Amino acid sequence: MRRRFRNGLQRALEFAVVALMVALALVVVLGVVFRRFGAALVWYDEVASILLAWLTFYGAALAALHRAHIGFPKLVDGLPPRFRRPLILLGEVFVLGFFMVTAWAGWRVFGILGGETLVSLPWVPQRLVQSVIPIGAILFIIAELVTLPEVWEGPGSGEGDSREGDSKAGDSPEHSAAPV
Length: 180
Description:
The protein is an all-alpha fold and 180 residues long. Helix content is 68%, strand content 0%.
């Protein structure tokens, strides 16, 4: 069940990240082409910066799902469980606490923005644009919680070293170039 949920979340985040990257590239290319022909788009730089922010939040959640953020996995995984597990808990408390505060602050921003809109696109509400803050924070929290059991078990648990990302071809003995 957890693995199916994780795979579904991964596919959804990958789709969102790719869609945002494509949209960002298209907006920037359109902006450059229109400017080259003397008909600059007044909205492209604002939309591009918003897409970059959205890409950052969704990409961060995807990286969290792979446990690809900065850390000390070799050091922590090399410790005996009696030391490793308290360090894991401490790290998780800090990360989850930070993103809970971020989600709360992002939600509070909604009240502040009221009926404000984008400067260059007055029909786009700021609330829509800023919704990425609480949504991205909640996605990060979910990704951390979904992968926590693998990290808790550590290396040799049958799940692989979850902080190292996916294994690559050549990492396993079957793909080794050394003779047997």
